[in-house]
Amino acid sequence: MKDKVVLAYSGGLDTSAAIKWIAEIYEMDVIALSIDLGMERDFESIRQKALKVGAIKALVLDAKDIFISDYVFPALQADAVYEGQYTLATALARPLIAKLLVDTALEEGAVVVAHGCTGKGNDQVRFDVSTAALASHLRIIAPAREWGMTREETVAYAHRYGIPVPVTVDSPYSIDENLWGRSIECGVLEDPWIEPPEDVFSWTRSQDEAPENPLYIEIGFEQGNPVSLDGQVSGGVELVEKLNSLAGEHGVGRIDHLENRLVGIKSREIYEAPAATVLLSAHLALEQMTLSRDQLRFKQKVAQEYAELVYNGLWFSAMRQDLAAYVQSTQRHVSGTVKVKLHKGKSMVIGRKSPKSLYSYNLATYDKEDRFDQSAAVGFIQIYGLPVKTQAEVQETREEESTE
Ligand code: ARG
Questions:
Q1: Which of 38, 110, 138, 339 could form a disulfide with 4 if both were Cys (CB 3.0 to 4.6 A apart)?
Q2: Is 176-353 CATH 3.10.310.10?
Q3: Domain range annotation of the chain
Q4: Is 123 a catalytic residue?
Q5: Collapsing DSSP states into helix, strand and coil, what is residue 123?
Q6: Is 202 tagged catalytic?
Q7: 256 CA to middle of ligand 1, Å?
């Protein structure tokens, strides 16, 4: 009996060629697994294609709910953004896909999992490390990292074996998408000086073509999770889908990032992430109202660390899990409503309210309701500034105008 391998199958050229290639080179039975994370694809025809190309079995899993509740929202609560720009759509999806590959391999009695990543990107790292964390006995095959074929050679290989070559192979871009965002690489984008042409975008309007009138929306949060839109309670998937279309319509969520890959390459990435952009800023606005200064300051450091762990393929590490526990704990009072204005490519928080707000009008106001004791500030400053004063007297910390 042949060994079985579960391959993450997108229906594209590379993973289709991979079905044939694994069967041929490794002499294994290929089970194709396609996972719906919110791309608008015809998964039944993808399944049929896998069988036609030579898979012994083809499965489709709808993982949209788990993706949002167990991967995307925890990252949102962490305020995770890589290098201040990338909202991590692909990076968050990979560990989930790896987990489903592993689960399927165990169910199907497969000894190998396979994916279509090349040897130059982050995704191979995310798949391989996640697999090692979840089931270290499974072997990993990555045909596109092993076969050494150019794009043209892969097309020729496909023709030779009667593998249908998608018309989109004409597109110069490499695209990955899920509910949390869309990424576009290659083609003219590889010149960092060139403005992205309009045809790379498909979720967002350009600023010029966005409506003249702004749209105001209200997002409700419960313990750090978005739960309603304009007062209407909504499941996570539905809420993210709606926000992608509303904010995309107003040109919100375009990102142009010259990014540092884990494997040492700088690459120019274009992203569209309308819902992520809106939700991340709304969530932070609510934290600013419900967390203390110290919590916010420390949480910002955690956010950066968390984003790097996610980006670098360490979702299933103990380190990420420990930070997640801290993040979760910080969210227990992050409930309330945030008002956001979408206009001409911008998403602006213009209002927030919370039953657990730490904002006190009586402390902030300069009007007659003021309850802040200004005379107490003098004593506070005396003690607060004491070490600076002491040091300056002894060590003359005043900078000289010139040393000459
Ligand atoms: N640069 C992004 C990341 O590393 C996007 C990768 C997109 N992946 C792809 N196979 N096209 O997360």
A1: 110
A2: no
A3: 4-64+88-170, 176-353
A4: yes
A5: helix
A6: no
A7: 13
For atom 9 of ligand 1, the residue with the nearest CA is 176
Ligand 1: centre distance to CA 270 (Å): 10
Q: E strands, 75-127, where?
A: 112-114
Phi, psi for residue 93 in degrees, rounded to 5: -75, -35
pTM higher than 0.90, yes or no? Answer: yes
Q: Whose CA is nearest to atom 10 of ligand 1?
A: 176
**94 catalytically annotated:** yes
Burial of 61 (0-12, 13-18, 19+ CB in 10 A): middle
The CA-CA-CA angle for residues 213, 218, 220, to 5°, reads: 165
| Distance between Cα 267 and ligand 1 center (Å) | 10
Give the rounded percent of residues in the chain with a pLDDT score beyond 90. Answer: 94
> Does the Cβ of 87 fall within 6 Å of ligand 1?
no
* pLDDT over 70 at 169, yes or no: no
Q: Could you tell me which CATH class the domain 4-64+88-170 is placed in?
A: alpha beta
At 392, is the pLDDT very low, low, confident or very high (cuts 50, 70, 90)? very high
Is 182 known to be catalytic? no
Query: Residue 403's pLDDT is what?
Result: 55
